[in-house]
Specification:
six-stranded mixed sheet, alpha+beta, 60s Ribosomal Protein L30, Chain: A
């Protein structure tokens, strides 16, 4: 590859433009909220207060253009796992236990084999999370989707136990990283641009398995980890990478200092950076870089086997995460 390094925006996904558009419509969204809405747009899950105590946590998401890789490879089961685990992780950051999940599947023409693989993946992930696949919608839309193309979105609702209390975050608290299984479900428009001329069957020496298998590795579920650790807040590292998601879990006036030598970045990320000449800030602002979830813990309550990757510091302004 030659010329200027690649970026997510150049690959067709402009996160900053989305954030500007979201700020524009936030007042419209807020106008629909009654007193029952405890948390609206911004965090990883919305919270709706229940009569008598407790909250429902809800989230919706999609798999993005990872679907194009699945279509090219002819393997779709992992996409079903992806959408469930992504949604489960989002509400888990609110301390929620998943109750039920719904899916929306849209395609140009229904392929029963593809649909069956997706449902197999979703039901497997739902069983693992003790979550009911309650229903969904399957839509055939020729003229909107090309033949062979499809999209998959998920919607999840969970319950937050009113008895659970989390201590406030303070400077000096530590950041614990939970390892990702790979790219999870984010940054694939950029990834596909980086590897556009590479067959999915190709084996790069550092990966030691076909590229297609690496790119389709399913999204990890962190429900068990969050149930055993004494965390104060949690950031699910999805679209926007570490730079975009970690501040969402911190109160105003606080930021994070990350030690990038504290964990080993998986080879796939170094390969993307090198082949696409992607800048470090772009990498950390797009991908999880090997950390699928980052938790805030009191430094006196960190288990011995935990991976400490940084600390909470006092910080204001737009750049609330320092990675060095």
């Amino acid at each position: 590859m030659t010329g200027e390094g690649l970026s997510y925006a150049a690959a067709g996904v402009d996160i900053e433009a989305y954030e500007r558009a979201l700020e524009r419509v936030k007042p419209l969204i807020a106008a629909t909220h009654g007193k029952e809405v405890a948390v609206g747009v911004g965090p990883f899950a919305g919270l709706y207060a229940l009569p008598g105590g407790g909250h429902l946590a809800a989230s919706a998401d999609g798999v993005g253009t990872k679907i194009k890789v699945a279509i090219a490879a002819g393997h779709h089961r992992g996409i079903g796992v992806d959408i469930v685990n992504h949604c489960v992780n989002d509400i888990a950051t609110a301390g929620a236990r998943p109750l039920f999940f719904l899916d929306y599947f849209a395609t140009g023409k229904l392929d029963p084999d593809v649909f069956a693989q997706l449902v197999e993946g979703m039901t497997s992930a739902c069983r693992d999370a003790s979550c009911a696949l309650l229903g969904g919608e399957t839509a055939e839309m020729p003229g909107v989707y090309a033949l062979g193309d499809y999209d998959l979105a998920g919607f999840i609702v969970g319950l937050v136990d009113p008895a659970v209390h989390r201590e406030p975050i303070k400077p000096g608290d530590v950041l614990v990283g939970l390892r990702s299984s790979g790219l999870h479900t984010n940054g694939y428009s950029l990834v596909r641009k980086v590897f556009e001329d590479v067959p999915l069957s190709h084996v790069f020496p550092d990966l030691r398995r076909p590229l297609g298998e690496e790119l389709l590795e399913p999204h990890s579920c962190y429900l068990a980890d969050l149930s055993r650790l004494p965390w104060k807040s949690a950031a699910h590292i999805t679209g926007g990478g570490i730079l975009g998601n970690l501040p969402r879990s911190l109160p105003d006036g606080l930021g994070a200092r990350i030690d990038r030598s504290a964990w080993k970045v998986p080879p796939i990320f170094d390969l993307i950076r090198q082949r696409g000449r992607v800048a470090d800030d772009e990498m950390f602002g797009t991908f999880n870089m090997g950390l699928g979830m980052v938790l805030v813990l009191d430094r006196n309550e960190v288990p011995k086997d935990a991976k400490v990757v940084g600390e909470v510091v006092e910080r204001t302004g737009p750049d609330r995460v320092d990675i060095s």
